[in-house]
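Show me a record, fold above all:
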Amino acid sequence: MLPGSPASGTGRACCHTLLPMTALSPVSALRLYTVPVLNDRESTSIAEDDDYFYDLIPMAFNHRLVMTPKKNTRVWDYGWCYDSALAAIACVHVWNPETQNEPLGWKKRPTGEVVRTAPRADADPQYNRPRCLHGNYPSDGPCRTDPYCGK
């Protein structure tokens, strides 16, 4: 268990995150931390479930939300880039990882064609339609991020 996680009641707050967070996500079993936690993985943990830590990594021009497996915290399995840490945190608040493959609002999937599949993805087929590398549904029109995306 990480310091600052819902059960521990301790931890260091991340000084650049100003969004108040609740202990439980309103839509899933995801446990959101009341205070983001600076961890030893060079990232900030904002939530966890039984199998993953949900971490934010500051990048040069954006923030990356990653799913770090608890069984091997030296790697991350899935990631999505956001314009800001605040945008990533807000999207995690409304994401249901049990039925939705990926969170809302991301602008790039750094894992390329590797797409996460939710355990119960068939429960939300409209949300889980194929997306381009920038998070857009091709059926909704051209990619809003890259006009040459083609996917």
User: Anything to note?
Assistant: Residues 85-94 form the longest helix (10 residues). Helices lie at 85-94. Residues 1-25 have pLDDT under 50 and may be disordered. Residues 3 and 9 are 7 Å apart (CA to CA).
